[in-house]
Amino acid sequence: MKKFLGYILSPFSILAFLLLLVIFHPIQWLCLKLGGYSAHKKCVDILNFFLTSTFYIIGNRVIFINKQNLPIGRPIIFLANHQSLFDIPPMIYHLRKYHAKFISKLELTKGIPSISFNLRHGGGANIDRKDPRQSITELVKFATRMKENRWGAVIFPEGTRSKDGKVKPFQSAGVATLLKKCPDALLVPVAITDSWKMIQYGLYPLNTFTPMKWEVLEPIEPGTRSVDELVKLAEDRIRAIVDPN
């Protein structure tokens, strides 16, 4: 029944999502040109509030839990498991006060209204996975911006999306590069549960009436153990929530 309803409701949700991207593209440009970083960021935050709202058109629920007293004005590295492209809008909006920037694939910086513009001008890192030297250089530059501006970063250490929701082993190289340049960055795991179910049939039909949860977990101080151990600790905490069996 949920899949059947997806055939009916998905076009409305997808159309609303795409229209928002098209409408906000020139608005982003104006905000950046007239108001600089601050105005552009507010525009992106509003865009992602509305993008998240399109999930409700198909009856899905976004449950974002953050009971942690995270510091403002300190660099933070959010480490999250990755289940779908729809993981991102709720994180941008709900983590907005931490200025959380994403580490994205370079190919996403072209051809996608609003999203590509924000990736090019929002201050995150855009890496070429086929070019290790470029990736490291880009991450070092990004870590420098984090340190100077007290920004947050969102990284998906699995390296790719999990199509069935099971947590894949975390890789520590990206986190190690960020910590090398920004050693006081707080590590914060974020457990994402069941967002993969929204696209378990693909982009059409989208699954309907599915609760999806984002939960910010207990932060981890850097420097208390090796980077590999820190990342493994974050992975274990996320796995305990998302994939306890």
Brief synopsis:
This protein has helices at 2-53, 88-94, 115-121, 132-149, 173-181, 227-242; strands at 61-66, 76-80, 100-105, 125-127, 152-155, 186-193, 211-216.
Strands in their spatial order, largest beta sheet: 1-7-6-2-5-3-4
Strand count = 7
Helix content: 40-55%
Distance from first to last alpha carbon: 28 Å
Number of DSSP helices? 6
Unreliable runs: none
**Anisotropy-based shape:** globular
Task: Give short descriptive properties of this protein.
alpha/beta; globular; 16% strand; single chain; seven-stranded mixed β-sheet; 245 residues
Structural summary, described in words:
The protein is α/β, with parallel strands linked by helices. It is built from 6 helices and 7 strands. A 7-stranded mixed β-sheet has the order 1-7-6-2-5-3-4, with helices on both faces. α3 (115-121) links the parallel β3 and β4. The chain is globular, with a radius of gyration of 18 Å.
Describe the secondary-structure layout:
Elements: H1 2-53, E1 61-66, E2 76-80, H2 88-94, E3 100-105, H3 115-121, E4 125-127, H4 132-149, E5 152-155, H5 173-181, E6 186-193, E7 211-216, H6 227-242
Parallel strand pairs: 1-7, 2-5, 2-6, 3-4, 3-5
Antiparallel strand pairs: 6-7
Helix pairs in contact: 1-2, 1-3, 4-5
